[in-house]
Write the structure tokens for this entry.
Amino acid sequence: METMADRVRRVRETIAEAAVSCGRKPEEICLVAASKTMGAEAVREAILAGVDAVGENRCQELTEKLAQGAYTGAPLHFIGHLQQNKLKYLVGKADLIQSVENEELLRQIDRRAETLGIRQAVLLQVNIGREEQKGGADPDRLPELCTLAGSLPHVRLEGLMAVPPVFAGQENYPYFEEMYQLFIDIRAKKYNNVSMNILSMGMSGDYPAAIRAGANMVRVGTAIFGARTYPQTV
Ligand SMILES: *Cc1c(COP(=O)(O)O)cnc(C)c1O
């Protein structure tokens, strides 16, 4: 039987190969365990096995597992669809909210963080495939969103996140490259009060390609936890 430690080690090896193949250091890549539908015990095992962070998709699940002490020892990220009425459960709880996609969410996060007296770290989710049904901001809206984020004192914008169209393996590469270009362009603009340091993209099926295109954060679920046993809307 393959253990959690074996699977995390294998993912780390694959990350290292991809990083080295393009002249980067394996330590530059942050491994986020995407733990939707997985129980608190599995999350604890993944943290013990050495993942860098844990990413949850659903607020209620996050709240339950938080109460069970599942995340002790690793930063907690939120990577799922964001709803305004759920922000109160996330701001100040999640170390990084990766899936911010519009102005209103930025403002609400800022307001909530102000009442808590904190600065909330966020990423902007980009709908790089310009898919109708997909979450994320249109790439053309990024300049406005970065300007706004930089003006909000209780929000710290740290980078970009994307979930490109689902294809097998290599076919995502052009989307990953486009994301990297956006990331570089935005970073070059040096928006006030914005630190464009994180590029979060790549999942179990395509994280090596994402890394080769420039990702420094990957979100891996299945390759760490095994197949999810019940369907879950993202
Ligand atoms: C589920 C999920 C992942 C991980 O997907 P796997 O294919 O299981 O690795 C990554 N990012 C997001 C936003 C997800 O919802």
About this structure: DSSP finds eight helices and eight strands in the chain. The mean pLDDT is 95. The CA atoms of residues 60 and 140 lie 32 Å apart. Residues 34, 36, 57, 79, 163, 203-205, 219-223, 234 surround pyridoxal-5'-phosphate (CB under 6 Å).
